[in-house]
Amino acid sequence: MAQKVVTRFAPSPTGYLHIGGARTALFNWLYARGGGGTFLLRIEDTDRARSTPEATQAILDGMAWLGLDHDGDVISQFDRANRHAEVAHQLLAEGKAYKCFSTQDEIQAFREAARAEGRSTLFRSPWREADPATHPDLPYVIRIKAPQNGNTVIRDQVQGDVTIRNDQLDDMVLLRSDGTPVYMLAVAVDDHDMGVTHVIRGDDHLNNAARQMMVFEAMGWDIPVWAHIPLIHGPDGKKLSKRHGALGVDEYQKIGYPAAGMRNYLARLGWSHGDDEFFTDAQAQEWFDLSGIGKSPARFDFKKLENLCGQHIAASNDAALLHELEDFLASTRADALPTAKRDLLSTGMYCLKERAKTFPELIDKAEFILTDRPITPDEKSAGQLDNVSRGILHELTPRLQDVTWSRDALEAAAMAFAETKDIKFGKLAGPLRAALAGRSATPSVFDMMLVLGREESLARLNDAAQAQA
C-alpha cells in the first residue's frame, strides 16, 4: 500500500508571511490535497527573542486569506523542547553523541590556528572519543558524531542528487550548554514525530538537509523525500526584496488581488503544467507534482499576476466574488455596506467584473452603485452636462418612463430618440454616464440603468436635467 503523503509548512514567526513562504505553503498544500494527504502547520518559534504572537497571527491570517487550510492543531516547536532534548540524551546514551567541554575561546583558537596553517577550519572536538571518566565538572554541549568518511547524498526531487563529502560535516551541536535544543535537531525530531513524508521548502535549506539527515540516520528513522525549491527573484533577476515592491502576503491582500488569482500565480511561479497559465484550484491540486518544479529561480512579474487576477475575477462565481469583495471593503471602509447596496452589487456583478484586475478597479466601476443622490459629477464628466445636454436629458427622461425596463427596450428607446435629434448615440452616452454615475469611466449606460432600476435611474436623470449649469 502506498504511503500516505504528509507535508508541512514550518515558518518562523518573526514578521509577516513573506511571498516566498506563501508559495512554499501553497506547494505543500497542493501536494497534500492532490494526493488525499495531510497538510500540517508548525510554527518554528524557538528563537524567543524574535518570535512574537503578532507575527504568528500574521502568518495565520495570510494563510487564511490565501485559503490554505491545514489539518489538525498548529504545532509550536518551542513547546516540544523537552522531546527534542530527550532525543539528544538518547543519542548520548547510545554512544552516537558525546559531551563536548570545549569553550568558545578554545574553538576560536582552533580555527585561527587551522586558518594560519591552511587547514580546514571545521572544528574537530577533542572530546569525541574521550573516556567519560575524564569528563570535568564543567558546562558542556551535546554533539552528534558525524560520519567522517565517505559521502552524504541528498536525494532531492528538484535538485537531483546532491553529494556532500562527510569530511565537510562537523559534529553538530544538538543541545546547548543551557540544555536548550538547536534548530537543526528540533526540525528533524518534529518532522519525524509529525510523520512528515515530504519536506518541500526553499533551496536555502538544502545544506540543512545533510545535517538533519545525521539525526534521522542516528535514530534509525525513515528519511523524508526532499524537494528544495528555488527562491523567487525580482524582475531584474536579483533576490526578491523590498525594492521590488510588496513582500508580505498582507500587502497583496490590501492592494486588492483576489485570493484565487494569487494562488494561481504563485503556483505558476517555479512550477508548470505544460503551457497552462490560468487554472482552478481543483486543476492545480490534480496536476501538481514535484517533477514540474524548475531548478532555476522564478521571476516575479506583476503584469502576469494582474492578468491572472483579472481572469479569475471574470470567471468567479458572483456570490463568492461578492463575499470576497465585502471582506475587502470592510478592511478599507469604515462603514459596513448597507443591505440595499449589497443587493445592487450582487445584481450588477455581471457587468462589474469584466476587465477588472483588482478589487479597487472593480469598486471604481461600482461607484454608481455605492454613491447616493444627488450625484456630484467629477471634473471630467461635469463637462458632459452643459445646457444643451441637460435639455436633451429633460426630453429623454419622460420617454423612458413607460419603456419596458429591459436592455433591448432601453437601447431601442435611446437609439430612436438620438435619431429624432439627428445625433449619434455617443453624444447621448456621455451625459447619461454623467447623470447616472457622475463619472466618465463606467459600465455601459444600459447596464447601469438595469442595475439601478427604473425609479432610481429616472430620479438621477431628472436631477441632472433640472440642475443649473
Distance between the termini: 80 Å
And the CATH topology of the largest domain? Rossmann fold
Largest sheet: 3 strands, parallel
How would you describe the shape? elongated
CATH architecture of the largest domain: 3-Layer(aba) Sandwich
Radius of gyration: 32 Å
SS class: mainly alpha
Work out the helix count. 20
Number of domains: 4
Domain Glutamyl/glutaminyl-tRNA synthetase class Ib catalytic: 4-306
Enzyme class: ligase
Family: Belongs to the class-I aminoacyl-tRNA synthetase family. Glutamate--tRNA ligase type 1 subfamily.
Catalytic activity: tRNA(Glu) + L-glutamate + ATP = L-glutamyl-tRNA(Glu) + AMP + diphosphate
Report what the structure shows.
The structure is a single chain. With 469 residues, the chain is mainly alpha-helical. It folds into four domains: 146 residues, Rossmann fold; 151 residues, 3-Layer(aba) Sandwich (Rossmann fold); 55 residues; 88 residues, Arc Repressor Mutant, subunit A. Helices cover 48% and strands 10% of the residues. The chain contains 20 helices and twelve strands. The strands form five sheets. Strands 1-2-3 form a three-stranded parallel beta sheet, with helices on one face. A three-stranded antiparallel beta sheet has the order 4-5-8. The chain has a two-stranded antiparallel sheet with strand order 6-7. Helix 2 links the parallel strand 2 and strand 3. The radius of gyration is 32 Å and the shape is elongated. The termini are far apart. The relative contact order is 0.09. The mean pLDDT is 94. It is found in: Cytoplasm. Catalyzes the attachment of glutamate to tRNA(Glu) in a two-step reaction: glutamate is first activated by ATP to form Glu-AMP and then transferred to the acceptor end of tRNA(Glu). Belongs to the class-I aminoacyl-tRNA synthetase family. Glutamate--tRNA ligase type 1 subfamily.
